[in-house]
Specification:
alpha+beta, 3 strands, 9% strand
Length: 117
């Protein structure tokens, strides 16, 4: 058996939580289980979830349909977002632009109905 980090053969047995024998590398201190089985979603599942998100499906909808937790989907979105360039290069100025409406209330209300005024 070899260490997963440094490929050392100087391995010793460590504790045994939940019935699985842990091992520790004497050289680098990495703890691991002998039969490491990585879990996770397939690349196809990630692609489908991200495609649904890009096509305006909500996170909770994707969670219900694909049985993937919404925080996992948010993590995938952030991973993809880090790969995008900061400022995309544009050589032409658009003639038509779509802007969403957003109203913001910055001041306090003049009348407080719940105070009897």
């Amino acid at each position: 058996m070899q260490c997963l980090r440094c490929d050392s053969n100087h391995i010793r047995r460590d504790r045994k939580p939940r019935g699985k024998q842990n091992y520790i590398c004497a050289d680098c201190g990495r703890q691991f289980i002998q039969y490491h089985n990585p879990k996770g979603y397939s690349d196809e599942m990630k692609r489908e979830c991200l495609e649904m998100y890009v096509n305006s499906s909500g996170l909770r909808t994707i969670e219900r349909v694909k049985k993937v937790h919404h925080t996992t989907i948010i993590f995938w979105i952030k991973q993809i977002g880090r790969q995008l360039p900061e400022n995309p290069e544009t050589t032409e100025i658009p003639e038509i632009m779509e802007i969403d409406e957003l109203e913001t209330f910055l001041d306090s209300k003049k009348t407080k109905f719940w105070c009897g005024a």
